[in-house]
């Protein structure tokens, strides 16, 4: 049975929503325990502990709990039964534990213990496109259906929402969209935002093929058309998905209406020299997770999909009408008899869709492509254009978040489509909201299940006693009315100039600002997961800050913290290197000492 959100959820009619085909509906309630006993029990995982890339994560503990709840019962949801789920603790004081989302690659740690109190149950409200991987990830983690007439959910998965619908969320509730998401998802908005940044920052924003927004840019387009007789152009509707309405431009009449002049569309310079594999064009679907806009936190999934056209590529003008030669959209090519669906996730370098891992292996193992390092030559470009695209909408989205979102309630998964040209330059083609999460093949399921599960784990859903939370909200509201407990904030508290001089050397973690503790706790949840944090960058804390239209206090505070951490790492690495050098020197000198002692002993014996 599908979940329905009590709050009306509407998608803006012109928002680009990349939902290919939907999975069959899955009832969440069928996956939960129906035990009627309410108890708390400890349970230790039998899985071996995972090796960690970050020793600081050793403090995180997975806790297996059987929890009871005082939530009202419903005929659609057995609220009186107990359910086991895992909770991962953070080492930071004041940072709450979060629900553990596991995969075969990330089983729970062996160390487990019960929390000292009974934890409340966690609930999901679901509406919009039906995707099994989303429902199954929540079900495995122990989430239950939230009854239709209740609003005590911890998570809501919905289609893009109108901005006023964000105002009703409680502090502990998370929703899978930001207001203003169309600034990235609509082709015309993305073009405007990137063009604005290109005017300000020049070639740094040469990440999107140059485009014209008609009818406004029609005269400029005509000049470009005349100056570049060998240039091809591609027509795209302002807002569409799955390749609908996209075609190559053969003649000017294709963009002109008979009476009213140029039609409304995007005309973009076509990448005529794409990188080909066995003569076929391909693009990369890169999954991008944004967990916060203030401070900005962007993650990029190391695993994704490479999608191939089903007709050999040709730059012959006679082939311009062949959409399956020039477009890589699965919705278009899957209807071709030449489309080869992958039937074995282990064979991920075959057929019309590969994993990014398979693409990497293929490019690095064939000298003809000139790829000696995927990370340095390609992946660094991908992360760069993703960060720049998100920064281009930072000011607009933050304005809407401040106006309509009560707290840190939002996160969002995007699908960035990236293409490589013959010179290995990465180009951003589209930035899709609501990327298709259907899983028609084992390969799709393997990739998307991990992306979705790891996304939820990083976002962090905190179990909350709803009644206690409501009492706290009421007390806080009363204090605001009476003035009790209020402290006047100094004018410099949020001053960005003051933030630039912050020093964190020697500061205990319990005394760090909330924004730093939240950022670090989230980052540590990403360790050993498919997502890597692209921004802020631990190795280059100051990178990209000059591109922001508004220098925000929280961004600067996090940057100063990362600078301090980087200095600490460099100092520790230097000390470790010095210790190793000293140990080597001692080992090399020890034979000389032994020889000297033996010579002395021989001299004494001779005497």
Descriptors for this entry?
single chain; 607 residues; alpha+beta; four-stranded parallel beta sheet; disordered N terminus
Low-confidence segments: 1-17, 19-82, 486-493
Number of strands: 21
- The CA-CA distance between the termini, in Å, is 100 Å
Helix content: 25-40%
Average of the residue pLDDT scores: 80
Question: Which structural class do you get from the secondary structure elements?
Answer: alpha+beta
Number of helices: 14
Largest sheet: 8 strands, antiparallel
Tell me, what's the shape? globular
Bin the strand percentage.
Answer: 15-25%
* Rg, Cα atoms, Å: 28 Å
InterPro entries: TTL/TTLL_fam (IPR004344)
Pfam families: TTL (PF03133)
GO cellular component, one term: ciliary basal body
Catalytic activity: L-glutamyl-[protein] + L-glutamate + ATP = gamma-L-glutamyl-L-glutamyl-[protein] + ADP + phosphate + H(+)
Description of the molecule:
- This is Tubulin--tyrosine ligase-like protein 5.
- It comes from Chloropicon primus.
- InterPro entries: TTL/TTLL_fam.
- Strand 4 (123-126), helix 1 (132-141) and strand 5 form a beta-alpha-beta unit.
- The longest helix is centred in the C-terminal third of the chain and has 54 residues, at 553-606.
- 32% of the residues lie in helices and 16% in strands.
- Strands 14, 15, 16, 17, 18, 19, 20 and 21 form an 8-stranded antiparallel sheet that branches.
- It has helices at residues 132-141, 182-185, 187-201, 218-227, 323-326, 330-333, 356-365, 374-392, 394-404, 442-459, 466-482, 496-500, 514-525, 553-606; strands at residues 62-67, 83-88, 98-99, 123-126, 144-145, 155-157, 174-175, 211-214, 233-236, 247-249, 256-257, 261-262, 265-269, 276-277, 280-293, 296-301, 305-308, 353-355, 412-420, 426-433, 531-535.
- Among the domains are: 1-9 and 21-158, no CATH class; 210-270.
């Amino acid at each position: 049975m599908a979940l329905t959100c009590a709050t009306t959820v509407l998608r803006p009619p012109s928002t680009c929503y990349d939902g290919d085909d939907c999975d069959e509906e899955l009832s969440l309630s069928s996956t939960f325990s129906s035990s009627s006993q309410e108890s708390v029990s400890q349970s230790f995982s039998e899985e071996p502990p995972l090796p960690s890339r970050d020793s600081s994560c050793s403090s995180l503990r997975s806790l297996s709990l059987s929890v009871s709840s005082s939530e009202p019962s419903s005929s659609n949801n057995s609220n009186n039964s107990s359910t086991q789920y895992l909770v991962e603790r953070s080492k930071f004081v004041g940072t709450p534990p979060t629900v553990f989302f596991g995969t075969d690659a990330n089983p729970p740690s062996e160390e487990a213990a019960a929390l000292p109190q009974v934890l409340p149950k966690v609930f999901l409200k679901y509406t919009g496109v039906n995707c099994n991987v989303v429902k199954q990830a929540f079900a495995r983690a122990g989430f239950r259906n939230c009854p239709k007439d209740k609003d005590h959910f911890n998570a809501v998965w919905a289609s893009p929402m109108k901005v006023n619908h964000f105002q009703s969320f409680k502090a502990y509730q998370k929703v899978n969209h930001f207001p203003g998401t169309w600034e990235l998802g609509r082709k015309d908005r993305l073009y405007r935002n990137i063009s604005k940044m290109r005017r300000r920052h020049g070639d740094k924003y040469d990440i999107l093929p140059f485009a014209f927004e008609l009818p406004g840019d029609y005269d400029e387009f005509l000049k470009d058309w005349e100056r570049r007789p060998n240039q091809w152009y591609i027509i795209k509707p302002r807002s569409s998905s799955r390749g609908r309405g996209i075609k190559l431009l053969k003649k000017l009449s294709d963009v002109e209406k008979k009476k009213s002049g140029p039609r409304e569309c995007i005309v973009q310079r076509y990448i005529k020299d794409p990188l080909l594999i066995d003569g076929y064009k391909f693009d990369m679907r890169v999954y991008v997770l944004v967990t916060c806009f203030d401070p900005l936190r962007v993650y990029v999934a190391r695993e994704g999909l490479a999608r191939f056209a089903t007709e050999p590529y040709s730059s012959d003008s006679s082939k311009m009408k062949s959409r399956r030669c020039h477009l890589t959209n699965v919705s278009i090519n899957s209807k071709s008899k030449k489309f080869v669906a992958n039937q074995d996730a282990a064979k991920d370098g075959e057929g019309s869709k590969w994993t990014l891992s398979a693409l990497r292996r293929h490019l690095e193992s064939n000298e003809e492509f000139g790829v000696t390092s995927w990370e340095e030559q390609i992946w660094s470009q991908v992360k760069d254009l993703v960060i720049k695209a998100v920064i281009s909408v930072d000011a607009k989205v933050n304005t809407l978040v401040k106006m309509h979102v009560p707290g840190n309630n939002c996160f969002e998964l995007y699908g960035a489509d990236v293409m490589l040209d013959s010179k290995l330059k990465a180009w951003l083609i589209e930035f899709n909201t609501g990327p298709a999460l259907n899983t028609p093949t084992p390969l799709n399921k393997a990739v998307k299940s991990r992306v979705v599960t790891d996304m939820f784990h990083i976002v962090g859903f905190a179990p909350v006693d709803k009644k206690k939370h409501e009492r706290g909200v009421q007390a806080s509201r009363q204090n605001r009315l009476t003035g009790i407990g209020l402290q006047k904030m100094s004018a410099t508290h949020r001053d960005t100039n003051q933030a630039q001089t912050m020093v964190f050397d020697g500061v205990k973690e319990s005394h760090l600002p909330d924004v730093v503790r939240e950022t670090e706790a989230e980052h540590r949840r990403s360790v050993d997961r498919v997502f890597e944090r692209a921004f802020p960058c631990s190795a280059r804390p100051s990178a990209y800050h000059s591109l922001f239209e508004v220098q925000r206090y929280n961004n600067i505070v996090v940057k100063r913290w990362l600078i301090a951490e980087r200095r600490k790492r460099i100092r520790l690495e230097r000390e470790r290197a010095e210790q190793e050098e000293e140990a080597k020197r001692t080992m090399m000198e020890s034979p000389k000492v032994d020889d000297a002692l033996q010579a002395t002993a021989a001299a004494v014996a001779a005497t």
